[in-house]
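Notes from the 1:1 (GR / supervisor)

We went over the backlog. Supervisor wanted to see one worked example end to end before approving the batch request, so GR pasted a single chain during the call. The sequence is below; no edits were made to it. Supervisor asked that the structure be written out right there so they could see what the output format looks like.
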Amino acid sequence: MSYRNKDWSFAELSRKETLWGPHGYHRYPAKFIPHLVRRIIDEFSLPGEVIGDIFLGSGTTGVEAIRTGRQFYGSDINPVACLISRAKCFPIDPSILNETWKDVSRIISQIAPLGRNPLTDKDKEAILSINISYALPEERLQYWFPESQRQALTAILKAILSVPIEQHRIFMLCAFSNILKRCSIWLSGSTKAQKDLKKTLADPVDEFLKQVRDMMKRNKLYWEDLLTNGINPQQAGEQIRILQQDARSLDTETPQVDLLVTSPPYATCYEYSELHQLTQLWFEKFGIISAVEAKQNWIGSKNVSSGTLNKGVFPHTGSESADTTLRELLHLANQRPTKKTDIIREARALHRYFIDMNRAICEMTRIVPTGKQLVLIIGDSRKRDVDIPTTQALCEMSSSAGFALQEKINRKVPGRVLVSTRDRETGKFSSTANSDVEVYPEENVLVFKRV
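Structure output shown during the call:
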């Protein structure tokens, strides 16, 4: 059956199937369904070719590239994303990993267990005394983690850092990262940073032991899967290259790829720089990753909305569709004086998003040679009841940059980690009864050829 006639929703897949093997190592919002990227790789590349993803996220593309006998290059501006991806993509010899785990678990077992406990009155008082909007990194740790949790997590992290084999250390750092929300006051089930003072916090020791054991089983599945498919897992690491870099300014180390398949940040989505702030806090404190500025200029970030208007007109974004939408928002702002400041601020952020995506697409032309393919997975959205034509805008930008659209596949999205509805007026993610606008009910798979 031609790929054009196949069902691209993958609605029949179970959670167990979409979180197979290393895909289940770590939570990540709006992850690729592995089967989606697997089909794209199978359809548009050949074994031995180089697959690229410059909005790497949690490394789903990399795992599927290696499983299909391809090479992989991935990059992301987020150091936490790069670490998670390195843990997921690189298979580890289960027997050697088991020996490392014996040593680490022996140390961990000596840490006094806390059990599952609610916050004490003293904990709540300490948390409420901190203004999180202006808190320094150490204060932020104290805000999210009561003292007993911080002590246990510190002991676990020090045990991990004693691991001599780098890839084993990265594997366990990934496990540590994934237990942090459960061991903090972060509201359970929320992607956004929200506190819950009524929460019963998990025991860090118990959570870490369970997390690593689960990941070891998943790693073994990955290792055995490669062997079954005639791929030497001991050599697979030589086929993987992951760098932390900005998609808007790829450096000279970025290799040429035979297929670039990626899902860029969506317009009007979450504040990406805040999603992994707990991991960022711990890893910065221990020097595992470099510090990230509080207002990091990431694509899709609301912190880039400080541009100025030139007589009420935005500079050209590289897309007529995007420019038209921005004019609509400015017109709407003039019609609603009480909302004008908010709407203009949102329009500025959206303008910067499109400017940044145009820069990223221009960079893609440097690493996708003539005749090779680019596949973008993106969805449209709404803001203030105005349609945001992201798909059309990226098609226009890609065409100007030297990519010819070959196929546009509409894909129904059966479910996501993201909240399922938005507030119609503000466009903000919400789960209230008045939130009747679905968030990304569908997305588009855009297949381009470099000309």
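Supervisor's comment: The first helix runs from residue 15 to 18.
Batch request approved.
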